[in-house]
Amino acid sequence: MSPEDCRLAAAYIRVSTDDQVELSPASQLVEIRKWGSANGYIVPDEFVFVDEAKSGRRVTGRDEFRRLIGSAKQKPKPFDAILLWKFSRFARNRDDAVLYKSILRKQLHIEVISIKEPIAEGKLGIIMEAMIEAMDEYYSINLAEDVKRGMEEKHRRGELQSTPSFGYAAQDGILVPLEPEASYVREMFSRFLSGQGFFPIARWLNDMGIKTHRGSAFDNRAVEYILRNPVYIGKLRWNPTGRTRRNYDDPNILVVDGKHQPLVDINIWNAAQDRISQLKAMHKYHGRPLGSGRDWISGVVRCASCGGTMIFAKPNYWKCNNYVRGRCKTSQHISGDTLKESILARLRADATASEPLRFNIRQTSSNAADELSLLQQRKAGIQKRMERLRDAYLAGAESLEEYAAAKAITLRQIQDADQRISEAEKRIADSATPQPVCTAIRSAAKTLTNSSSTLEQKCEAIHSICDRIDWDKAKNTLAVHYRFVLP
Questions:
Q1: 71 Cβ contact partners less than 8 Å away, ≥ 6 residues apart
Q2: 458 and 325 together in one domain
């Protein structure tokens, strides 16, 4: 066939990471051009699109595939067909395969041809192509499940399957301490438990020129990730559903014993987790790091009219942030010294008040609350067992004597659960008595008035007891909304 009679075609080639036996991109191109030459197609170099080490499950990340589709949409159409080694090279996701083939064939009038999977024309060809697409998707899903099962089994054996964490290097598949990084990790835990936060620790590391394993500077998130990582107590953490993405309470996370040497003691690590929980309860998820503001009242004092944050204004005043931006009609203008002294006076008065403060207990995650929840779940399970015993007796599966004996045992278990629930509730109530509340207020006031306290320590002190402080200039009132993280 003469070149004048040939039609133009594009070649799309994809080689995924799991393709052990597939032809190389160059070999696929040779076969595609050989088939095209025999069937009246020419494949110019500018119409060769190659994605290497890419999965066919998704279109995202396949830059050459998207460039192919973009080229196909040009007017006039640049080629008459797209030639593939196999349909699986085009897409292993059946929805994507149907969508893009429909666009190419029906809207752009460009044929999609597999040179190794000849499809008959007509209705039978439609069925055959659909079956091939379904088998390709089945293969991809089945392969992904097999890989995940293998990774999970490897993880349960305590084998490393990720890059080494900061403070470690990998040797023969096992983590080994890497100095001086290991010493920095121990110092991070020590500084954190001595009162420093994520932000100052990150600043300390950056001042020394220390980088993460990715070569990046440290930030508060990187410090938190290290302090939360159980690898430093000899564990390995893995999430089979994907990256943890700072959701450290994800129920899918699997933590197993590793084969490596811990860097910190388990008690130190547990103490760090307790302090992290307290810090998280003190300020909002998107709040700025403690100690990064201008003063210890930053972020905690709010406008009584709109709830907006009070911000600093020169020379030494504080105003409603929304007023400055025209969203509030009240400036709440007040001297910084007057505001701080008023807050301290309120704290001192509440710490020594003869009448106890009124408060409501709102359950959050704590050891006592977790224990109570487990006990309540256990009691519910025992009660369901009692119902099943009754159903079995009524159905004739058990005799009266067997039912009576089992019922007596189950009732004793319910009574024991009730007693333990009562004790747990008492422990929670006792922890919220006015005495520790007043003690916490006095401790915070002492830190705020201590000239040797750092800005971060003062910020942590006020946030540990206050949810917010509302200033109302018109009424000349300061309303302190306390919040305590109870044991």
A1: 10, 47, 78, 79
A2: yes
Span 264-315, pLDDT tens digits: 999 999 999 888 887 776 665 445 666 567 888 888 899 999 999 999 988 8
Least confident span in 100-114, 127-141, 174-188: 127-141
Strand pairing class (254-257; 235-238): antiparallel
Structure-derived torsion over alpha carbons of residues 233, 239, 244, 248, reported in degrees to the nearest 10: -50
**451 and 320: one domain?**
yes
252-287 burial, b for 16+ CB within 10 Å, e for fewer? Answer: eeeeeebebeebbeeebbeebeebbeebebbbeeee
Strand duo 310-313 + 477-482: pairing: unpaired
Please tell me whether residues 261 and 197 are part of one structural domain. yes
Predicted confidence band at 455 (pLDDT cuts at 50, 70, 90)?
Answer: confident
List beta partners, residue 301: 469
pTM for the predicted model, two decimal places? 0.48
Domain with 202, as residue range(s), is 168-282
Tokens 């490393």 appear where?
160
Reported in sequence order, the residue ranges of 124-244 that DSSP labels E, i.e. its strands, are 168-171, 174-177, 235-238
The count of domains in the chain is 4
Whether residues 232 and 380 share a domain: the answer is no
